[in-house]
Amino acid sequence: xxxxxxxxxxxxxxxxxxxxxxxxxxxxxxxxxxxxxxxxxxxxxxxxxxxxxxxxxxxxxxxxxxxxxxxxxxxxxxxxxxxxxxxxxxxxxxxxxxxxxxxxxxxxxxxxxxxxxxxxxxxxxxxxxxxxxxxxxxxxxxxxxxxxxxxxxxxxxxxxxxxxxxxxxxxxxxxxxxxxxxxxxxxxxxxxxxxxxxxxxxxxxxxxxxxxxxxxxxxxxxxxxxxxxxxxxxxxxxxxxxxxxxxxxxxxxxxxxxxxxxxxxxxxxxxxxxxxxxxxxxxxxxxxxxxxxxxxxxxxxxxxxxxxxxxxxxxxxxxx
Length: 320
What we know:
Blueprint: E1 3-7, E2 12-19, E3 22-30, H1 42-64, E4 71-77, H2 81-98, E5 102-106, H3 107-112, E6 126-131, E7 136-143, E8 146-152, H4 158-168, H5 175-183, H6 206-218, H7 224-250, E9 254-258, H8 265-272, E10 277-279, H9 290-302
Parallel strand pairs: 1-4, 4-5, 6-9, 9-10
Antiparallel strand pairs: 1-2, 2-3, 6-7, 7-8
């Protein structure tokens, strides 16, 4: 079954074709219009998707050598509602025109199941740490559609905290990649920063972000590389602390990383050192992409699921 997957939940316009053998094509266009604003502007994102989506889908089909897929999958949420609507509407139109099945995919489930695209894929059950600019959640994945939230952020997502801290230092947007690069030449113990705790296994990054701001305000000439390395180390410390505790509580010894922050070099290095079987996705598979949507949709289709062309977009949607 060859499935076309379309992803437009935020600022990546993406399409991919996936079948039983793996990824046949994966095309991603990252919008640059948001750089000047220091963050994603929803209206600009939706308009940019309209401008690029047809070309991106055409490129994905051409690279896969496919004229007509066997099914179409698209992100239906969560995400920026206007952006989600662009891809969802186009996907439904394609499915109707081709007269093929359609399935609406939860964006977070796409990330959660992206580890299944790796070779070898993890076996259920496994822990899935989905960490990005909009989401920081630790799931226990028992099977397709059977996911328990073990931990979540109570305020900023980790990627959001990276962006805000980068903005404090004038490092530009997106903040994650530039902090990662700057941290390579910094001292992770150069700035004393807290490791915030929330209730249970949950995270809180707001206090850490505030601690960085206060340090910058009272330090006339901060060593920016040290600030980056210290902040990054604090984020990774608290992320992996909850992973270790969740593994001890559940007895599950397999961890899959997903989401844009899963591309962070320090998180990848230290996750690989855990006493767990760790699935690290390719960096290009961490950020939003069509392959994860096509793959998740394909699993749903194989399970016999189909969605009508009246499927709606959702701004918020926890996988279940």
